[in-house]
Design a protein that fits this description.
With 164 residues, the chain is of the alpha/beta class. The protein has six helices and seven strands, in the order E-H-E-H-E-H-E-H-E-E-H-H-E. It has a five-stranded mixed sheet. The protein has a two-stranded parallel sheet with strand order 1-2. The two termini are 29 Å apart.
Length: 164
């Protein structure tokens, strides 16, 4: 069971929607701001490993107030300095966005390549990664025990449980 959940919304309308939907649960904290600005204070409140779901990128339906359409490398850099990251898991949504050309509405220079993401997520020498169902899964080497042969059985994309 998860004791605390944090969600960071850069867009005020999404923030308000999250507050209405999730705000009545005392274990859920809805934060407004850019993820690179808010994430350090959240990490300072944690004293053990955690699960992170990173999905803070721009999409055409919501106007962006951020400088970058995709702050993922900055988020990963912040996580890399956190003392408990070696035992934590990071899930990065929309893996497809990092593996090929983007539509014209996206600023390509704001988006890292899949190689850049995997390299930035190499938190420790034993870090492993895989892509499963459009999600980049990053975690300690023991994560392979939890998933077993799942990546191979489902045709997960490369890299599959390789040290990053």
């Amino acid at each position: 069971m998860v004791g605390r959940v944090y969600t960071i919304e850069a867009d005020f309308a999404l923030y308000e929607d999250a507050r209405r939907t999730l705000g009545n649960d005392p274990g859920i904290h809805v934060c407004l701001g850019s993820s690179p600005a808010v994430l350090p204070s959240i990490l300072n409140s944690l004293d053990s490993c955690a699960l992170f779901w990173l999905d803070a990128h721009w999409f055409p339906e919501v106007p962006s107030v951020a400088d970058s359409q995709c702050p993922l490398l900055e988020e990963l850099s912040i996580l890399a300095r956190w003392p408990f990251i070696g035992d934590s898991c990071v899930l990065i949504d929309d893996a497809r966005m990092f593996s090929g050309p983007l539509e014209e509405c996206y600023r390509a220079g704001d988006w890292p390549t899949l190689h850049d993401v995997i390299a930035a997520a190499r938190f420790t020498p034993s870090t492993v990664s895989a892509i499963i169902d459009d999600v980049i899964v990053v975690g300690p080497g023991t994560l392979t025990l939890a998933f077993g042969d799942y990546p191979e059985m489902t045709g997960a994309q490369s890299p599959v449980w390789k040290k990053t």
